[in-house]
Write a structure and sequence with these properties.
2 copies of one chain form a homodimer.
Chain A (H helix, E strand, L loop, with lengths): L9 H7 L2 H14 L3 E5 L2 E6 L1 H10 L3 E3 L7 E6 H10 L4 E3 L8 H11 L3 H13 L3 E4 L7 E4 L10 E7 L11 H13 L3 E8 L15 E7 L18 E2 L1
Parallel strand pairs in A: 1-5, 8-9
Antiparallel strand pairs in A: 1-2, 2-4, 3-4, 6-7, 7-8, 9-10, 10-11
Helix pairs in contact in A: 2-3, 4-5, 4-6
C-alpha cells in the first residue's frame, strides 16, 4: 500500500517542499527568537509569532489553541513533540512551574513520571521524525501514532503505529489474537498499514535521556495474508510480516 | 442501536419463528436419532441426516463441511457449541478418539486442556444462547463472539462480544486505552455494540462443569459518549456504560 495523496498536484507539492526543510526552517526560527515553552501537566504551551505559527503548522507540531490574545497564537505540544524540539533538534527551551528553565535531565524525569512508557514512546516518535515522517496521535484509530509521508493536508496517514517494548515491560497490546485481528481489521478499513515499533532498551535503563542513543528500534509492518496474492506464478510473495 | 434486519419482511419472519423453538426442534431431533459427535482436536464432527441438517443450519450450530458423502452432511462444531448441545441441552453425545462416549467431566477437562479460558468462554456462550441469541465466532472483528437476534440470514449481528475474566485471570483485552479505542472504533464502523461479558468464578474453581452454575456474568455494553446526544433537555441520558 503506497501513499494516498489528497487530490491532484499534492504529490508534486510535497516533493517540491520536503518535510526535512520545513523542520529546519522551524528549527532556525525557534532558535532565532530564543523560544520558550511552558510546562503544563502533560503538555507544553508555546506562544508563537506569525512566522513560527506558519512553520509549526507546516511541520505539524502541536495543536493551535484558541485564546483571546491577538498577537500570539498558542500551541499545545504533546510530551514527545516538546521533548523532540527541546532535546533532539535543540530549538526550544522549556520553563517549569517554578519559572526556571528545565534541563534535559529534569524534563526527562518529569515526563517519565507522567508516563511510564515515555522513554519507548519518545524513542519511537523521534525514530520516525528523524526519517522525516510527520507523526501525530493515533488515538482516533486505537493506536499510538499515525505517520504521514508529508503534511496531512496533502496525504492520508500511511501507517498506524503501535509502540511495544521489546524487553517485556510492554504496554500490553497485541498479546492475544483477538487484539491482533481487531487492529488489523481496523487498519484495513481505514487503508493504513500496521507498523509495530519494538523498542529495545538493551539493558541500558532510563536514568537520563542519553540512554536513548543505545536503545534500538525494530520495525515491522503487519499485513493480512491473502492466498490470492500468493500464487506460485507471482514474482513477489508478500508474507505476514516484512521488515 | 437496534437490530438491523436484512431487507423487508425479515423481522416478521423472525417473530413468526422464534429461535427458542428452532433450538427445541433441533434438540428433539438430535435426541430422537441418538446423535453422536466425534471429538477431533478443538472441534467436534457431527454427521447429520437431512432433517437435522436443516435444524442445525436454522439454529446456527457448527459449520457445514464439504465431503464426498452423499447421504450425510457433516458439521464442524466449535468446543462451546458442542459442549452446549452435550451438557446444557443434553441432546448430543460425544465420542473420543478411543471410540468411547465421553462423560461431561471428561469433556470438560479435555476442552480446558485445549484452551485455558474455556470455562469463561463457555459460560459466556451459554449465557447468551440461553437468552436465545445466536452466537458465532467474532474473529472477523477481533472479538470473541458476535451475537445475532435471529438467524444471520435475517439480521446483522448486533453485539460484538468480548469475554473477560472478572477474577483477574483475564485474556488480556481492554487493559490499555488504545485497545479500547481500537475496539470501539471498529465496532462503530461495523455498526455493532460492544458487549463485555465479565465472567466471575466466585472462588468456585473449575474442577467439574457443575461449577458453571455458581459462576456469574456481568453484562456491560460500551458506547462512545457523544456530547450532542447528552444535552440537558433530552429525557434520557446515555452514558459510557449501561447494563
Amino acid at each position: 500500500m503506497g501513499p494516498r495523496w489528497k487530490g491532484k498536484g499534492s504529490e508534486a507539492k510535497a516533493l517540491a517542499d520536503p518535510m526535512s526543510e520545513i523542520v529546519s526552517q522551524l528549527q532556525s526560527s525557534l532558535i532565532q527568537l530564543d523560544s520558550h515553552g511552558l510546562l503544563s501537566g502533560c503538555s507544553v504551551l508555546l506562544g508563537a509569532e506569525t512566522e513560527q505559527t506558519d512553520f509549526l503548522n507546516r511541520a505539524c507540531f502541536g495543536r493551535p489553541i484558541i485564546t483571546t490574545e491577538k498577537d500570539k497564537q498558542w500551541f499545545q505540544l504533546g510530551m514527545e513533540e516538546a521533548f523532540y524540539l527541546c532535546y533532539s533538534i535543540k530549538c526550544l527551551k522549556i520553563i517549569g512551574e517554578d519559572q526556571c528553565t528545565k534541563s534535559n535531565e529534569e524534563l526527562w524525569n518529569y515526563m517519565k513520571s507522567k508516563e511510564d512508557t515515555f522513554p519507548e514512546y519518545f524513542k519511537a516518535y523521534s525514530h520516525l521524525r528523524n526519517k522525516n515522517w510527520v507523526v501525530r496521535s493515533g488515538s482516533q484509530y486505537g493506536v499510538d501514532f499515525v505517520a504521514y509521508r508529508h503534511h496531512p493536508a496533502l496525504v492520508h496517514s500511511e501507517y498506524a503505529v503501535l509502540v511495544l517494548s521489546g524487553d517485556g515491560n510492554a504496554n500490553g497490546r497485541l498479546k492475544v489474537w483477538s487484539d491482533f485481528q481487531c487492529t488489523l481489521r481496523l487498519c484495513g478499513s481505514v487503508a493504513k498499514t500496521l507498523l509495530v515499533l519494538n523498542v529495545y532498551r538493551n539493558n541500558i535503563g532510563d536514568v537520563s535521556p542519553s540512554c536513548l542513543e543505545a536503545y534500538s528500534v525494530d520495525e515491522r509492518t503487519i499485513t493480512r495474508w491473502s492466498p490470492e496474492q500468493c500464487r506460485e506464478d507471482q514474482k513477489t510473495i508478500e508474507n505476514g510480516a516484512k521488515k
